[in-house]
Amino acid sequence: MQADYLANLDALIEECGSLHGHVCPGQVLGVRMAVLGCRLTGIEDPRGVDRKRLLVWVEIDRCVTDAVSAVTSVRLGKRSLKFLNYGKVAATFLNLSEGLAFRIAAKEESRELADALYPAGVGKKERQMLTYRDLDASALFKIESVRLELDEFEMPGRPRGRISCAECGEGVNDGRDVVDALNRRVCRPCAFGLYYQRTPKAD
Ligand SMILES: [Zn+2]
Ligand SMILES: [Zn+2]
To answer: What's the burial of 118, exposed, middle or buried (CB within 10 Å: 0-12/13-18/19+)?
Structure first.
């Protein structure tokens, strides 16, 4: 029988801290989010038997994201972790086989709660970590039952389709190409602009 590692918050926090580089309020919050997300969606062993059943959308690229990934083993490179650049401390957990999904967002009040619950003398970071570890999930998080419509291009597993961009010639996987004004299949940078500037050629 597998150990219920999701039940041991302190061990998870320590583990996340060593992977992330430091234990911080974000690790504690991320552990709580991940454990709650798994519980709500009926995922008992995200690192083992349930590893192909869980998809997670994170809405920020900060400390919490590392903890969510470490606890659940979802990874960008496995397409089980999806990144939305919204700058919000929130994540959505989907149990693929049940079609069951919950979005969990940190409440703004949780920061002030940390100040109210613990007296002066305890450092700010400490207060936040204690609060995030001990507070009821309902006080810490806004929790919503949600539905996600996934097309096959979002799914883990081998790439679905690959074309060569008609403009730059680079390969584009998983239907991420678009049709341009000339009715050619091109990559998004060629259609919408690059995120970098080319430097002048040396030769
Ligand atoms: Zn951190
Ligand atoms: Zn291109």
So the answer is: middle
